[in-house]
Amino acid sequence: MEGASFGAGRAGGAVDPLDFLKQPQTILRATAWIFSIVVFGSIVNECYVNKDGTDPELHCIFNENESACSYGIAIGIIAFFGCIFFLVVDLQFQQISSVKDRKRAVLLDLGFSGFLSFLWFVAFCFLANQWQRTTMSKGASQGADAARAAIAFSFFSIIVWVALALKALQRYRLGTDMSLFATDQFATDPNAAYPGYPTGSGIESTETYQSPPFSETSDANPKVTAPQTSPQYLCHPL
Description:
The chain is mostly helical. The chain is built from 7 helices and 2 strands; from the N terminus they run ααββααααα.
């Protein structure tokens, strides 16, 4: 984006909702938000089952390991609220006038996205490993689809959050165009002449100062020759 500062336009500019929704970053965040709901929703609703269908006590379907279910729920909730937070940051990003604040926001996005990518990778490996060790029973069979969905969308979440981290890295590398925060008194063309000194009327002159050519100076100020006087004769005494 030409004239952009960390991927956004001039500070204080209006934000078009349609353009904002069409941005790849917004689409990725919305996708990650939906995936997080699928993961923790599947675990909470259907991944706590009875052992044999008659035991009133509920156990985690992933090899009866409560840590697996708790970890999946925790990561899903963190990703859920993280997506909402950064969606709000993206919406208000163009209103941030300070370059340093924009840089901090992009770095925070980069760090959070990279961290969530790692956490989702751990969640995928952990849930998949525990599911392989699960002994199938009547209760486990009832929640098998939910368990597979949690594992699958954990894997999909890795891809989405890695993509978000790469987008944040791209925005950070864009750097800052300081012309966004400069005044408009300077000419946009780098080859244009510097504006002249303002006159007494308060209006800047668009003409640049230029000294008159030497020939014009010579014509305007001709040499003045001294008048010739008649020679004086000296009288010698006889």
